[in-house]
Amino acid sequence: QVTSPSGEGTDAVVILEKTPFQEEKVLDLLKKHTKLELQMHNDIYSTYHLYPPPELSEIKTTVVYPATEKHLQKYLRQEVHLIRETWEDYKNITLPFIQSQSFSIQWVYNILEKKAEADRIIHENPDPCDGFVLVPDFKWNQNQLDDLYLIALVHRREVKSLRDLTAEHLPLLRNILQEGKEAVAKRFGVPGSQLRIYLHYQPSYYHLHVHFTALGYDAPGSSVERAHLLTDVIDNLAMDSTYYQKRALTFALRADELLLKKFQEAGRV
Amino acid sequence: QVTSPSGEGTDAVVILEKTPFQEEKVLDLLKKHTKLELQMHNDIYSTYHLYPPPELSEIKTTVVYPATEKHLQKYLRQEVHLIRETWEDYKNITLPFIQSQSFSIQWVYNILEKKAEADRIIHENPDPCDGFVLVPDFKWNQNQLDDLYLIALVHRREVKSLRDLTAEHLPLLRNILQEGKEAVAKRFGVPGSQLRIYLHYQPSYYHLHVHFTALGYDAPGSSVERAHLLTDVIDNLAMDSTYYQKRALTFALRADELLLKKFQEAGRV
């Protein structure tokens, strides 16, 4: 994705996107007027530069013109930085930052209290301490199982993130793992062995929740620098109740995120 | 990604990948012999089909020839299953399976012995025990930093995977982390805070190696069910030398993979 301002007084946003291959055109691509240049050869492996004819390499182009400042900002690339947060960093930088923010999580409470999305609930364990509600994530339209995405929201309200978890929360976490898998299998026919079940750190809101996504779906936020498998979290806590109050945790922050500024001010980036 | 067998008795795998845009070529793309076809117009928004000249729409092509049945299977689309492998599973199922296979890693030895790709080496620590070679991964064409991908291959040959690691390997792993980051910063100007540095489990070949990818790049195999951050691996081993001979590890296997069959036969799936 590329953004380029026009030079003529008024700005434009131009978005260029390479589109997926179309299966029925692949044979043409390998035959038709295609220039091939050897780049590297080692044993049975070789790599080439292939230069396809224009009609086989369409680029999807979107133009916003005239574009306002807001349009320009929306499409500008943000640099990301990896943070390795020790427990001391959490106490001194991250926790005060979370507490100073007033992220509204009213929408979470609305779901837990059945004031919103009550008809969307897939499963509930009503226990106030070890219970949770399982709902489809906003990002999933439920039209196909390929990008299945559900969220388990815990009933208890004082657990902000992974950093707050101890062995005390094992019954809750095991309920989510076990009942969540069963509910998804029952409702959607997707077995537990085809689910990626994980927490985010940092999460996007500080009320404990667990992500359920289709294993074959390259879900945003499922990469190693953000996702923590629930099974691993359970094993870590079973091994050491204070695991998440000891260990350094890695996550990425975009250049415009306030938390990054806090780490920079503390000389930790 | 497309796979196509040749029709001539011996099979080949052909992988076609569209590569990221190169920033310095975007202006050419918008000017030079580029056919533009209006598709949709609404207020300030419009979309086009853009047909670029061949030299501006390179497709990265990888050929495996001759390809074995195993190579063909590797690239065909398959259902995936999540496995939670205990240490007993590793000893009783995975290790015997690895030992029974004869997947050639001659290409790794070729690199370590400078018989191939010697001119591509970015950095080397020649120590036979704690040293390694850093090379660009086959998947990266080195034209742009967006999809930067390098591999550190260790010189010692008896370490198959994460499962073999103990505190004994900490000097090696710390060298890879430290020197790898420095070498990438020096050669490519990408700081360590913008690198995702990790191991795969299961790896695709059983000679210890570490992946370096651009943090902003959604690299294949960087998701939580396969990737293990090198910093986490180091912390785990520093905490407990036998961590990886104790812990259950999660990974996905495609339906056609022999190892899945072994887990099924053992009643573990």
Automatic annotation (TrEMBL), chains A, B:
Amino-acid positions noted as binding substrate in the UniProt annotation, renumbered to this chain: 107, 117, 137, 139, 200-211
GO molecular function: 5'-(N(7)-methyl 5'-triphosphoguanosine)-[mRNA] diphosphatase activity; RNA 7-methylguanosine cap binding
Highest taxon in the source lineage: Eukaryota
Gene Ontology biological process: deadenylation-dependent decapping of nuclear-transcribed mRNA; mRNA processing; RNA splicing
Cell compartment(s), UniProt: Cytoplasm; Nucleus
Keywords: Acetylation, Cytoplasm, Hydrolase, mRNA processing, mRNA splicing, Nucleus, Phosphoprotein
The keyword Cell division is assigned to this record: no
InterPro entries to which the protein is assigned, alphabetical: DcpS/DCS2, Histidine_triad_CS, HIT-like_sf, Scavenger_mRNA_decap_enz_N
Enzymatic class: hydrolase
Active site: H209 (nucleophile)
GO annotations of cellular component type: nucleus; P-body
EC number of the protein: 3.6.1.59
Reactions catalysed: a 5'-end (N(7)-methyl 5'-triphosphoguanosine)-ribonucleoside in mRNA + H2O = N(7)-methyl-GMP + a 5'-end diphospho-ribonucleoside in mRNA + 2 H(+)
Entry similarity comment: Belongs to the HIT family.
Assembly information from the UniProt record: Homodimer. Associates with components of the exosome multienzyme ribonuclease complex, such as EXOSC3 and EXOSC4. Interacts with NDOR1.
Protein name: m7GpppX diphosphatase
The organism of origin for this protein: Balearica regulorum gibbericeps (East African grey crowned-crane)
